[in-house]
Amino acid sequence: MERRWLGLDRRSLLPALVVLVIAVVLRAVIPWIDHHIAEDDVVRAGDRLNLSSGLTVTPPVGWLLIDGLLVGASTVQPGTGSSTATVARSGVGAQIQVAPFAGDANALLDQLNRNESRSDDRPEFTIDGSRGAVNAAGGIAGVVENYTSTSSDGIIAAYVLPDGRGLAIEVSGAESQLSAHNGQISAMLRSVSVEARS
Fold this sequence. Notes:
The chain is an alpha+beta fold. The protein has helices at 13-36, 105-117, 175-180, 182-190, and strands at 4-5, 8-9, 49-50, 55-57, 64-67, 84-89, 92-100, 126-135, 141-148, 153-160, 165-173, 193-194. The N and C termini lie far apart (84 Å).
């Protein structure tokens, strides 16, 4: 029985078609979809993260807002924000969290370091260098440390607000990427502010 069609073995036609369809999807369809997705979640100049009760952080321009609310965004309860936010770009991610905390910024950073050292996400977590101060634009003083681990390097900053909340900002990524975005990261750490609510 002849198994050829136009000189091709019929048994190899289906696998060849599957490979062709996959190639078309990867080379044409996915880039087309990516190009047509709205970039509403890209941070623009003047955007500020709304962390509730007037607390804001200015994320770097051009980074992608993964989680959180911007000042002025519609919420179920007007005037409220989000206790968490995440922004990212080029392999660098910044996670921001606010929660009640009784203590100073050094105590909060100590607690964050203990949590990270026990986390499976940060194997061989090690503080790299000495603790430094961060003087934010809103008059809020914080402390910051660099760390290394086998999964990533990073920076952890801690702030304690007069209203009894603690703010943690952790930026992680490859050392080369962190260095490339150092200016933007430093500006974000200094942008912490508590604004008067109207």
